[in-house]
Amino acid sequence: MTLARGSAGAFEHNRMVMLFSMMDGSREVGCAISSSAMDDLEHVARTRPEQREEQFLRLRDRIEQCASRKFLAGEFEGTPPGIILRSIDFRS
After folding, report:
1. Which of 27, 34, 54, 78 has an alpha carbon within 20 to 30 A of 45's alpha carbon?
2. What CA–CA distance (Å, rounded) separates 59 from 35?
3. What local confidence, expressed as pLDDT, does residue 1 receive?
């Protein structure tokens, strides 16, 4: 089962990740993508923290496709288990 779109969270400057969620039926799956992964997707050097939410929205479809692939592969991390996306997850 593919995940459905959840909510866009906020950028966590301390961890340098954008938080978001995906839905597995009625269950929310916590997700995060690193700022460097988003910059690599857009081929930019460094996006300012206040622009991260905008950047996430531009890249959201690609990010969610990758999160769904990791979910189906059972690639969970952390407690509680969630999906964390890094630059390497977008390489072919």
Report:
1. 78
2. 12
3. 63
Nearest to 18 by CA among 31, 6, 27: 31
Q: Do 23 and 82 form a contact (C-beta atoms < 8 A)?
A: no
* Nearest Cα to Cα of residue 16 among 43, 46, 44: 46
* Cα distance between residue 25 and residue 14, in whole Å: 31
Tens digit of pLDDT for each residue in 22-80? 999 999 999 999 999 999 999 999 999 999 999 999 999 999 999 999 999 999 999 99
CATH fold of 4-90? Double Stranded RNA Binding Domain (3.30.160)
Looking at 1-92, which runs of residues are DSSP E strands? 4-12, 17-24, 27-34, 83-85
What's the rounded Cα separation, in Å, for the pair 29 and 80?
9
Which of left, alpha, beta for 76 (phi over 0: left; psi -120 to 50: alpha)?
beta
